[in-house]
Design brief:
Elements: H1 2-18, H2 21-25, H3 31-49, H4 61-83, H5 86-106, H6 112-115, H7 121-142, H8 150-172, H9 175-203
Main location: membrane
Family: Belongs to the acetate uptake transporter (AceTr) (TC 2.A.96) family.
Subcellular location: Membrane
Amino acid sequence: MASNRNDIEKSQIRQTQLEPTHRRRGLGNPVPMGIMGFGGTTFLLSMFIVHTRSVQTDNLILGMAVFFGGLVQFMAGQWSVAYGDSYAAASLSAYGAFWMSYATLFIPDSGVIAAFGGQTEEFHQAFGIYLMLWFVITVMYILPMLKKNIAFVIMLTFLALTYLLLAIGSWNQKQPVNSAGGAFGIMTGLIAFYIVVGMLMDDEPTALFRLPMGVLSDK
């Protein structure tokens, strides 16, 4: 009798240990918040890049990039460590840092652009290299998702194309190329919004409907 009770207790302990970290700790999922910061900032900047409603100056993005795309997303990445999601921790923290670094480039008091003597040819070449690095980083983040989540693969693929086209546009100073990059950025933001809604719906027991996310594996 005692042996059976011990076996049951061991089985319960083993089952608890196999549960995801966030369930054992009673944590909420920080990933939707991080993706919203990422998608919202990407969408807004891309709207400026394609000159929506004749907007030619995109400095309005700086506050959004520092706080929403940067700080909020970076915090979500750090909280994902406690949530037990290594991929979210790595990707959200990285893209949060990207947005803060991007804003720093264009804040006048940072002195970055002034060091190049303004937005000169040399600056555009350097900025293109900067964007190309993030294209490579994004491709690296696509690989772990290929057999896991279709929605994330599509979003990151569009993001990679955004970086690639904007890098080429910076090197060649061709507005049509920049506009193409902005168009892909807008689609990236919209896909991010879809993912956020889908994840929030999945976490809400009383949701009216669910959105297909193309989840191939939850491991």
